[in-house]
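Table S2 (text version). Query chain:
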Amino acid sequence: MTYQCKLMDKECDGCGDCHEEAEPCPNCGSQEYEVQYFLKNEWIGCDQCIKRRFP
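Corresponding structure-token output:
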């Protein structure tokens, strides 16, 4: 089963035109992140500039 395009009357081809532009990270300015990191409801960075470390 295929998805319908949100902008045109055609089958979705995965172009991404229907997605909004990502907000720039407040720490590094990247728009190519997949994860946002928050500390008490304040966005502090993304997966491009913050490293996860487990104790």
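Notes on Table S2: DSSP finds no helices and two strands in the chain. The chain has a mean pLDDT of 87.
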